[in-house]
Design a protein that fits this description.
It is built from 7 helices and 15 strands. The protein is α/β, with parallel strands linked by helices. It folds into 2 domains: about 260 residues, Rossmann fold (3-Layer(aba) Sandwich); about 110 residues, no CATH class. The strands form 3 sheets. Strands 2-1-5-6-7-4 form a 6-stranded antiparallel sheet, with helices on one face. Strands 8-12-13-3-14-15 form a 6-stranded mixed sheet, with helices on both faces. A 3-stranded antiparallel sheet has the order 9-11-10, covered by helices on one side. Strand 5 and strand 6 form a beta hairpin. Helix 2 packs across helix 4, helix 3 packs across helix 4 and helix 5 packs across helix 6. The chain is globular. The protein starts with a strand and ends with a helix. The mean pLDDT is about 85.
């Protein structure tokens, strides 16, 4: 598990340290650095995979590796002229992590800021501290990332050979992941249905909390490398329906729940906008689910604009007796006089209370209600 991420000269950040817990929730307005923080983690992950491809001899000789800014891990960082902080005018990007055991690793990248390139150069000498990231879950083969722009309802989903079972970054292999996992078992800490740890049973039990009454069926069509998902509402008395007849909510939440149940202890799961296309009660339920996954041993990082996700996570942590700092909220903000994001680190104690509540941190409902009351008083006077 990583406990902090250090970012220097990367996009909107000059020099910033972000603290992480078992569950870390990134929130704030649009365009204030949340996605950049996730991109930094993804760039570290991609760099490490490039290092592993060099083999063990990479430890004993200098490494100079080009790392793509676009494509892998769904990265879309443009070119080298836009990757650094404009005010620093430096051609070095530094990204580092600190692990739970105290080990630290730093990755240094050379960036061509004179002419646009779609790669940056990772360079290191033998014994460089980045080898310490071996203890971080960023380096595990199993790594789960669900992007904000996910695949919507489909009759048929694709099949692909994977090093480990997952839904794909956009949920494009969700049907295959369910089909492969149906008769496997999930961690007991994630079970909400009694009597069995079977994946399929627990998947439907969690969906019952998020979108009640849903059953899932998959059918393989190996001759065309496709898998079909059928959805049935228990109380409707109808047959199996195409996801096209259900809507976006189930299709968008399925990869989040499937990956959360599949992720092994010690791995990392990053989810963007888990609340997309869900009503408030379902948003709270997915917050509970993500907190349960995190407190069962998977480090979970969530980017969200939903106070219901936040409150659901707090409720689940309270129910499970989570201790202080296991769940952390990072609130990103930007003001006219600040050229870089201001990041407030908020922890939660054993009573569910937050250590800070900065202006703009899920306080819009209070502001709107206050405006409504003022408008009512004004209308009565007139």
């Amino acid at each position: 598990m990583i406990t902090s991420l250090q970012i220097e000269n990367f996009k909107c950040f000059k020099k910033q340290t972000l603290d992480f817990g078992k569950l870390t929730v990134l929130s704030g307005a649009n365009g204030v650095g949340k996605s950049t923080a996730i991109q930094a983690l993804l760039l570290l992950r991609e760099t490490w995979m490039r290092v592993l491809a060099t083999g063990e001899e990479g430890r004993n000789r200098p490494l100079i590796l080009p790392v793509s800014l676009n494509g892998p891990l769904n990265l879309s960082l443009g070119n080298s002229q836009s990757i650094t902080n404009a005010e620093l005018e430096s051609d070095l990007v530094r990204l580092g992590v600190t692990s739970l055991d105290g080990s630290q690793g730093e990755f240094v990248f050379n960036v061509d800021i004179e002419s646009p390139r779609t790669t940056i150069e990772f360079a290191s000498d033998p014994g460089s501290s980045f080898w310490n990231t071996l203890t971080a879950n960023l380096t595990m083969e199993e790594f789960y990332y669900v992007v904000a722009e996910r695949v919507g309802p489909r009759d048929l989903y694709g099949m692909v050979d994977q090093p480990f079972n997952s839904t794909g970054y956009a949920g494009e292999y969700t049907a295959q992941a369910i089909s492969k996992a149906e008769n496997t078992h999930v961690a007991s800490e994630l079970c909400v249905a009694d009597g069995t740890t079977l994946f399929k049973v627990q998947l439907e039990a969690w969906l019952e909390k998020i979108t009640p009454g849903i059953q899932i069926m998959t059918s393989k069509y190996t001759e065309v490398n496709r898998v079909r998902v059928g959805i049935q509402r228990r109380s409707a008395g109808t047959g199996w329906l195409s996801p096209l007849n259900i809507g976006f909510g189930i299709s968008y939440v399925l990869p989040v729940v499937v990956n959360g149940l599949l992720a092994p202890r010690g791995s990392m799961m990053i989810v963007e906008n888990p609340e997309a296309h869900l009503h408030p009660a379902a948003q709270s339920a997915i917050g509970r689910f993500l907190a349960r996954v995190a407190l069962s041993g998977v480090q979970v990082i969530v980017e969200t604009h939903s106070e219901h996700v936040v409150n659901g996570a707090r409720l689940e942590a309270l129910d499970l007796g989570a201790i202080e700092h296991e769940i952390r909220f990072l609130f990103f903000s930007m003001s006219d006089h600040l050229a870089v994001p201001d990041v407030t680190s908020i922890s939660m104690d054993e009573h569910g209370d937050l250590s800070a509540w900065p202006i703009g941190f899920f306080d819009q409902q209070t502001k709107d209600l206050s405006d409504i009351f003022r408008a009512r008083r004004a209308s009565r006077k007139s």
